Amino acid sequence: MGEGMNINEWEKRYSIAYYNISKILTGIRGIFVAYNCNVDAIKHVKEKDIHKLISTVGKKSVQQRVTEYPREIQDPVDLVARLVIAMRDGKAAEVPTYTTEIHKWLMDNLVFDKARMGGQAGIISNLLANLGINNVIVYVPWLSKEQAEYFVDTANIKYPVIEDGVLKFKHPSEAYDSYQKPKVNWILEFSKGTKFELAEEVFEVPRDNRLIISSRPTWVRIDMSEDLYEHLSKMNGMIDGAILSGYQMIKEEYEDGTTYRHYVKRAVKVIERLKEGNPNMRIHVEFTSIQNKVIRKAILKDIVYKHVSSLGLDTIEVANALNVLGHEELAYAVISKGENSISALYEGAVKLLCELKLERVHVHSLGFYICVASRDFPLTVEEHRDALMFSATLAAAQALHGDIGSLKDGQTALKVPISERGHDDLEQLEKYLVRRDVCTGTEFEDGCICAINHDLIVIPTKVVQDPVGTVGIGDTISAGAFAAILAMLRKKQIDN
Ligand code: ADP
């Protein structure tokens, strides 16, 4: 390989990057975060629990429902049947429920072991608040009393409310709608070896896994109250950027006859409004897996295209995005396990950058990140790289501790070693880029490449061997890097 950076040098860079970014993070005036948030109720299902559930709803009906394989949870029998299937097969599954009755039933019949903040906007706003960002203005269209309890109790988390025609900010715990029902997702975990009986047959769970009951009540709308929309531009001066997520919840059609087009239009108007009067406002969208291709395409071509500056996603999501943009072959290459997958990933990221008119695309994978950015973005490749290393340190901290209470907590992850495997994976990309004359081996080694029509930044990341938790790490990576970008942009603005 080339002369450049070995793992030790990368480690040094990591410390410097974390220090550099930590120092300037409070320069950011604020970040607006919307839309999706929920409560995750987690229950570890033991033998006695599954027996109790089966006998509560009746063996016969469960047995019958198992053969019908319900695709949605309408009643407790559906729920127990899907749990039996998941436990019998040891497979992970996610099944939607469109009523909040199931939540009530589970509270009466099972109760959770622990509950935590869920949903991208919820996870991201708590993270940013813990990192000490001045104003974290969070907006969730369905803020219930229960939900409000899961926001960290810090003064920098602010929920916008309009009182007597005036925009004010309160902590979510003082701003919730007392008539709003909570959106609670249940995560039912089970362990290998758990035994249960159904219709004279004894089953043994073959693998640790979980069943997620995702709550999608009909009142869930990715939208903003008219009041707030009218006042949005008044946040000017309080925020330097916005992180938007949850668009995957938009449905093709609603019971009242409206379609996704209505919500897509509204989503775009919100972005336009946020940018009004502030040409420096940056918008990051956190992309996520979505089965429905109509919605996936609308998110990319109507919401993201031309309106958004920064996109964060994992490798599977890159493939999904490429698929609806008409690059099926490249999408296939991205998910193939072969040597070419990393170069396909890079080519795919460039396609997203150019075709969606973005300023930066940040792809995270286990062991490395790839970021492509437009050449006229006002940051250097080294600054982009600092943002990535800062976010990778946060990701490792989250894997290590389960969550990040402060910048100091994040810093503890500097001791997590850089993944050799990730470092090695990058060699495939290096070979490809050198062969294509995009850069020389030496240029590749420090991860900062100025190609002809874009900047490319690649870093090996820190990977925690036995993670405490892996939920929401992707969100942490994207939000951490984007906050770092905003901090550097802000510093430039002030210095000039
Ligand atoms: P989620 O939506 O649950 O966050 P994603 O696939 O979006 O899932 O993100 C997961 C990302 O988290 C991976 O791409 C990887 O970069 C990072 N990650 C996962 N496990 C670890 C770990 N043990 N140590 C460090 N980073 C991890």
Quick tags:
496 residues, alpha/beta, UDP-N-acetylmuramoyl-L-alanine:D-glutamate ligase, Adenosine kinase, small domain, 2 domains, eleven-stranded mixed beta sheet, five-stranded mixed beta sheet, 18 helices, 18 strands, 43% helix, binds adenosine-5'-diphosphate
Describe this structure as you would to a colleague.
With 496 residues, this protein is α/β, with parallel strands linked by helices. It folds into two domains: 7-37 and 119-174 and 218-495, UDP-N-acetylmuramoyl-L-alanine:D-glutamate ligase, CATH 3.40.1190.20; 40-117 and 181-215, Adenosine kinase, small domain (2-Layer Sandwich), CATH 3.30.1110.20. The chain is built from 18 helices and 18 strands. It has helices at residues 7-24, 47-57, 59-68, 76-89, 101-109, 120-130, 145-148, 226-231, 260-275, 293-304, 315-324, 328-335, 341-355, 381-401, 407-411, 420-435, 441-445, 473-495; strands at residues 30-35, 38-44, 93-97, 114-118, 135-138, 157-163, 166-170, 184-190, 195-198, 201-204, 209-215, 241-245, 282-286, 310-314, 360-365, 368-373, 448-450, 455-460. The chain has an eleven-stranded mixed sheet with strand order 7-6-5-1-12-13-14-15-16-18-17, sandwiched between helices. A five-stranded mixed sheet has the order 3-11-8-2-4. Strand 15 and strand 16 form a beta hairpin. Helix 9 (260-275) packs parallel to helix 10 (293-304), helix 11 runs antiparallel to helix 12 and helix 12 crosses helix 13. The longest helix is centred in the last third of the chain and has 23 residues, at 473-495. The two termini are 40 Å apart. The model has no long low-confidence stretch (mean pLDDT 95). Bound molecules: adenosine-5'-diphosphate.
